[in-house]
Structure formats: C-alpha cells, structure tokens
Prior knowledge:
By secondary structure, the chain is mainly alpha-helical. Helix content is 64%, strand content 7%. The chain is built from three helices and two strands; from the N terminus they run αββαα.
Amino acid sequence: MRVATVLTSLFAAFACGDAFVAPSLSESCVGGKSVTALPKSSSLHMSAFDGIKEPIQSYVDIWTPMFKQASESGLVPDFLLHWGHGAAMASVLLSMGVIGAYSEWKSSLYYSI
C-alpha cells in the first residue's frame, strides 16, 4: 500500500512537471488538471539570479582584462588559462580522497585487532 502511494505521488509529480517546457507557454498541474498559462511579460518575469547578476559580473570584469593581457603577451599559454583551474581542483580532490581513504584504511586495521 505504501509503495503504491509513493509511486502514484512520483508519477503525478513527473506528469505535471513543467521543467522542459518553453518559457513562453507553460503547462502546470492545478488540482490534477493540466492548465496552460498565458505568456509572461518580461517586466513580471524575473529570474532568481537577477539580484546577484550585476555584482558577479562586476567581479568577473575585474579579472578578465588581466587574463587577456597575460594571454596576449605570451606570459601564460592558452591551455593553462583554459584547463588550469580544473586541473588544480582535480589535484586537490584526488589528494584529499587518497589521504582520506588511506587514513580510513589504517584506522580500520587498527580497530580490527
């Protein structure tokens, strides 16, 4: 009985979801019925990120000229500008994962005695 209730709820949630509908016309589920909404006006339609868009853009604009200048002057190769941050984060993640796995393995050997 409980499984049937959960499956019914999941089906209703996915059947009435409007995540992949074009924003101009959307269908939503109200009271079990599919309702087509009117197109939203641009003044009323606001994203959740509109409040932080301008501060983030101004922060990015601080660093962009420095990276362009470093690339144009030849101080930094293009592949390093493109892949450098991802490689640095991968090395941190892998080193922390290896150290954590090793320390857990050592502690499990210590406590199994």
